[in-house]
Write a structure and sequence with these properties.
- With about 210 residues, the protein is of the alpha/beta class.
- Helix content is about 35%, strand content about 20%.
- The protein contains six helices and eight strands, in the order αβαββαββαββαβα.
- The strands form three sheets. A four-stranded parallel beta sheet has the order 6-8-3-7, with helices on both faces. The chain has a two-stranded parallel sheet with strand order 1-2.
- A hairpin with a 5-residue loop joins β4 and β5.
- It is globular, with a radius of gyration of 18 Å.
């Protein structure tokens, strides 16, 4: 994934608490020098993730599951879940200094496990990866989950808080998932292709104006 991120031109590579050690010898060998070609921010807590995301960023969750595979929830219960989520998010933001003296925003609502599970049931815009619509000049924050458990509840909350989307890669022959590295490659290069097309159209429009 590090090698792919560097190759596609990502500005930053983030890992959260619990991810594999990127300096492990196996990771170093497989990345073939990518460690030194991309900026890395390691072991980020979800409650401080907003410090690393531009305000205009598009959050993309890579999730192979579709809406039909999720448990259906009636509208009344969904409304109650949404109200609970909104109430918990109020006054949850605080400012703290890290060990280097930098001031960071901390969202304590990410520490509530029961609340985080609510966000898995809230509706989120979903589409095949090649049909997602990216905003003009938007930064993209792609979230790849672990191969065993997939996208975390915290990632779902982040997407809901910042108006993100969910994308999936259609597959055939009974295959229901790809490993994280392959999924990262497919999605990252498709994102670059779409951003280049958006920028190209924008340049044409500006030149004709």
């Amino acid at each position: 994934m590090l090698r792919c991120a560097a190759a596609v031109g990502c500005e930053q590579f983030l890992t959260t608490k619990g991810c594999v050690d990127v300096w492990d010898s196996k990771v170093l060998r497989s990345a073939v020098g990518a460690h030194f070609r991309i900026n890395k921010v390691l072991d980020v807590e979800w409650n401080s993730m907003s410090n690393y995301i531009p305000e205009d960023a598009t959050i993309i969750l890579a999730d192979s599951s579709t809406i039909d595979e999720k448990k259906t929830i009636d509208s009344n219960h969904l409304t109650k879940l949404l109200m609970k989520a909104e109430e918990a998010s109020q006054n949850s933001m605080s400012l703290e200094k890290d060990d280097e003296g930098n001031v960071r925003r901390i969202d304590t609502s990410y520490n509530d496990e029961s609340l985080l599970r609510v966000y898995r049931h809230l509706p989120l815009s979903s589409s095949p990866y090649d049909q997602m619509k990216l905003k003009v000049a938007s930064k993209v924050f792609l979230v790849i989950g672990g191969e065993a458990h997939g996208i975390s509840s915290s990632a779902y909350k982040l997407a809901h808080d910042l108006g993100g989307i969910k994308v999936f890669i259609p597959m055939e022959n009974g295959v229901d998932s790809l490993n994280a590295g392959v999924a990262c490659g497919v999605l990252a290069f498709e994102i670059r292709r779409q951003l280049q097309m958006v920028q190209s159209r924008r340049n044409v429009m500006e030149s004709e104006a």
